[in-house]
Write a structure and sequence with these properties.
five-stranded mixed beta sheet; 10 helices; Nucleotidyltransferase, domain 5; 3 domains; Dna Ligase, domain 1; alpha/beta; binds magnesium ion; 343 residues; 14 strands; binds adenosine-5'-triphosphate
């Protein structure tokens, strides 16, 4: 009998670290059937690192779901007259130059209706709020080209913030009941170069943004304070030992900046959508910093916790190093979400 099993690799090519999760979906379960993570702090080494990762075997499929991020990806929230999804796509393409700083021919556009605005309720509203995401063609194509040259098969290109939302939703499917109804949560992934934010109301994304502050800025603060080389500062950050208080002191201004920037996004959402962010779920490599969760909770004045995007997923233990998987877990939200995007 043919087995209904489909595998896909969620490949998160971060600015400092590559994460790959192969997720296999059979009738009843989501199973992590392969996993790899490697620190790649410079762009030049990225291609070889990817080649090694996939040459080493362990992955059963070549189907890859990946994401783009950074300055060439833009999120806009716009009000438009009520219209069908097809008309909306056309209208946005036609008027895109009003909203984005790139030539419309240079970008891939994606739109999503968020909610009705104005009027007396569902069906009678005159306008709607729409999320527009634009990513430069060159970014999307270059990344796909690199993967194809490595013998891989890119099947989907998303953005980090939405992948986070998918990982959270998958978590809800495999561990039902963790999230109550009528709930607004903010997912915040703090990587090396940026923090990706996605605010979900009842599992629907209402706000996404990237803030260009991250672990690299934390390391830089340590470099300056202690007069160290970058690699020494990185090591001290990851294992501060008895110097933990001095490290915390050195990075406090960066955490303040980061927390305040993220708070501005919460304020924006709360003003635009008349709702309150109730809880914050943190992920990304920078959350491994022992005092980060507590520090951000103090700034947000909201329940803030690090979440585990692989909780509830089965693992093929003969092919996956469980200890490495578990210690990287908070860093894997984007990769898990990318693998969950396509069934
Ligand atoms: N134990 C640790 N303590 C503190 N920070 C850590 C630790 N381990 C890793 N980091 C930091 O986490 C960051 C990498 O996290 P992550 O893999 O989420 O980033 P990335 O996806 O490569 O970056 P980006 O999303 O910005 O492109 C680096 O800045 C690294 O210094
Ligand atoms: Mg990242």
């Amino acid at each position: 009998m043919l087995k209904q099993r489909k595998s896909i690799v969620g490949l998160d090519i971060g600015s400092s670290s590559i994460k790959a999760i192969e997720l296999t979906h059979d009738k009843f379960d989501y199973i992590i059937t392969a996993f790899a993570q490697v620190d790649v702090p410079n762009e030049g080494a990225r291609r070889d690192a990817l080649a090694d990762m996939f040459r080493a075997g362990g992955f059963r499929t070549k189907r890859i779901s990946t994401a783009v991020s950074g300055k060439s990806v833009i999120f806009r929230y716009i009000n438009m007259a009520q219209m069908s999804p097809d008309e909306m796509r056309n209208a946005v393409r036609f008027e895109a130059d009003k909203y984005i700083p790139f030539d419309v021919e240079e970008v891939q556009l994606d739109t999503q209706k968020l909610m009705d605005v104005g009027g007396g309720g569902e069906g009678t509203a005159s306008e709607m709020k729409v999320l527009l995401v634009a990513a430069k063609n060159s970014l999307v194509h270059d990344q796909a080209e690199m993967l194809i040259q490595l013998g891989l098969q890119p099947v989907s290109v998303g953005v980090d913030a939405f992948a986070l939302g998918n990982a959270y939703e998958l978590n809800d499917i495999v561990s039902p009941g963790l999230q109550g109804s009528d709930h607004t949560v903010a997912l915040v992934d703090i990587g090396a170069s940026k923090a990706s934010i996605n605010i979900l109301r009842n599992n629907v994304s209402f706000f996404a943004r990237e803030v260009p502050v991250g672990g690299q800025d934390i390391t830089n603060a340590i470099t300056r304070r202690f007069g160290l080389e970058a690699f020494e500062a990185e090591a001290l950050k990851r294992d501060a030992g008895e110097q933990i208080n001095d490290v915390q002191d050195a990075v406090a201004p960066v955490l303040d900046d980061l927390g305040n920037e993220i708070n501005l996004s919460f304020d924006f959402f709360e003003n635009q959508f008349e709702g309150e962010v109730q809880e914050v779920y943190l992920s990304g490599g920078s959350v491994l910093l022992p005092f980060l969760e507590e520090g951000l909770e103090r700034i947000f004045e909201k329940r803030t916790r690090v979440w585990n995007p692989i909780e509830g997923l089965k693992v093929r233990s003969d092919n996956v190093d469980i200890d490495s998987l578990n210690s990287a877990a908070p860093q894997l939200a984007v990769a898990v979400g990318l693998a969950a995007i396509v069934g």
